[in-house]
Write a structure and sequence with these properties.
Helices cover about 25% and strands about 40% of the residues. With about 240 residues, it is of the alpha+beta class. The chain has one domain. The strands form two sheets. Strands 1, 2, 3, 4, 6, 9 and 10 form a seven-stranded mixed sheet that branches. It has a five-stranded mixed sheet with strand order 5-12-11-7-8.
């Protein structure tokens, strides 16, 4: 997750929507792509849900983003969608036990921003800045990876991946951020805070019971130089 100032770094009711989206897919592909208004709304809703889930956990001791092994993958999980985390930068390998019949939702690469009055004169200035910041990072995304059991879930064409997986939420939504958070070093005390988020996310239909290997990640480039890179390899033990 990238950052260029302290404020910029990088839910259940949707089950019926997911089922209807799934029914429309004749071949029952694992990946739910953003192919229309319904699936786009699902991605936006789950991007908000993922952000609330990830930032509710204590950064120093319970963050699924900082987790080096996967032992925290079940923290704070509820409902029909199971969230997975990437990293704050660099690679990780995790093992995670996933209950049966759970959709999976996770970011290949993402960003968020919090509204602090000491940095923004108004909420509209906050929205304007993050809108430009998100767009610049989207344009600078130079590689995305999404692979299940050794097979790409979409082609490796960046343009196709971008269209299928990119989502931004540019209307502020409230997040109750843990007092122990990634911005504690900047004096941010947490609490309920308006936020925006964007990134390339993936929504997967429930996997068959058994062991699966899920790989995902992304790279942001500044010309030929890698500005930020994240990747995760999950061994998923899906329950019967």
């Amino acid at each position: 997750m990238t950052s260029n100032r302290p404020t910029s770094t990088r839910l259940g009711t949707g089950l019926l929507l997911f089922l209807s989206v799934g029914a429309a897919a004749c071949d029952r592909e694992t990946l739910v792509e953003q192919s229309g208004p319904a699936s786009r709304r699902a991605y936006e809703r789950e991007a908000i849900g993922w952000t609330r889930w990830a930032l509710a956990q204590p950064h120093s001791t319970g963050s699924p983003i900082s987790d080096p092994t996967g032992e925290l993958c079940g923290v704070g999980q509820s409902g029909s969608v199971w969230y997975l985390a990437g990293t704050f930068g660099g690679p990780v390998e995790r093992t995670c036990d996933v209950p049966a019949h759970k959709y999976l939702f996770f970011p290949l690469i993402n960003r968020w921003g919090i509204f602090l009055e000491e940095f923004y004169a108004s909420e509209q200035e906050f929205i304007d800045f993050l809108t430009e910041y998100f767009a610049a990072n989207r344009a600078a995304t130079c590689q995305l990876m999404l692979r299940l059991d050794g097979e790409d879930l979409v082609s490796d064409e960046l343009e196709e991946l971008d269209e299928a997986l990119y989502v931004d939420v540019l209307e502020p939504f409230d997040v109750d951020i843990n007092p122990d958070n990634w911005a504690t070093q900047y004096g941010f005390e947490g609490g309920v805070t308006p936020m925006l988020t964007d990134g390339h996310f993936a929504l997967l239909r429930p996997l068959e019971p058994g062991v699966h290997t899920l790989e995902f990640g992304g790279i942001v480039c500044d010309g030929e130089v890698i500005d930020f890179e994240t990747s995760a390899i999950y061994t998923l033990n899906v329950e019967d």
